[in-house]
Amino acid sequence: MVRSYKIEKGTIIPSNEESAPVLVYVNPTIEERDILVGDCNINSHTLQSALDPDELSRIEFESDHAAIILKRPQNYSAADEFLFKVSSIGIFWFREKLIILLMEDIQLFDGKIFSKVNSMGDLVLKIILRIIYHYIDHLKVINMISDSLEQKINTSMRNKYLINLFTLEKSLVYYLNAINANAVVIERIKNNSMRLGLQKEEIELLDDIIIENSQCLKQAEIYSNILANLMDARVSIVSNNLNILMKTLNLITIGIMVPTLVVSAFSMNVAIPMQHHPHAFWFIMSLALASVLIFMFFWKLKKW
User: Fold this and answer.
1) Where are the domains of the chain?
2) Yes or no: is domain 2-240 CATH 3.30.460.20?
3) pLDDT for 69-115, tens place per residue?
């Protein structure tokens, strides 16, 4: 599926023109890929890399365009079970045209950062900035989920919440690698700003993007370190809760065994004292109750 856009009065608007300057391909078909390779002179390997979620971020310079592959956060769904994945986006930057490749259909030009677009270079940089903001939004969600799971772990014996926490930590590792790889590409864009034809305002925006990406990377590192450092403590809390539960069950078992021992002693098939006494039953029950009270007093005395 392909969508066409154009820049008009500083905004990105849909276009029905075949020669629209901005083309967005969502999971392109074989025919569309052949057109991109044949008519647009896009390298077939680079095209496949732009659609591969495991491909590393990079920038390549061809004779008539620059091919940029970046890692972006994949849209989260409940079926992912707290696993935040990353995907790839391919940006093929021609002098008068921009081709964008995606594997999933997303609102690429949403947000107020696209309210004023002056050129193709400005659009490319704002797409990169939008990706960074997307990472920051996901990191905030991960932090909120982590806090919620921490409270549940403190009071639950189930392994489900620990597994969810491990999944979040795995997601942060993916994000760290992706953000760090994007940082290398952004730095290369700055080093080749003259070759890409970036204007002074666009270079200033690029400097802001580098700062934003650096802050995003540090935020992801902090969240990852917090999860990694507290994981052992949370496992210890679960083990401690289990020990407390087992201790309570053992004390209850011993408390039941004490009166059972008293009653069992008077139930043997041999001659015993008071076996013909009319109030023998109540006497035995009183001894059993007294044994429970003595055990409870001993329990309190030992502060078990």
Assistant:
1) 2-240, 241-302
2) yes
3) 999 998 887 777 888 999 999 999 998 889 999 988 888 888 788 88
Single pTM value for the model: 0.77
Contacts of 207 (CB under 8 A, 6+ apart): 190
pLDDT tens readout for residues 179-218: 999 999 999 999 998 888 888 999 999 999 999 999 999 9
Task: Give the distance, in angstroms, between the CA of residue 180 and the centroid of all CA atoms in the same chain.
Answer: 16
Structure letter (DSSP) for residue 274: T
55-58 long-range contacts (CB < 8 A, ≥24 apart) are 55/88, 56/181, 57/178, 57/181, 57/182, 57/184, 57/185, 58/184, 58/185
- Taking alpha carbons only, the member of 2, 26, 14 closest to residue 106 is 26
Closest to 234 measured CA to CA, from 147, 175, 293, 133: 147
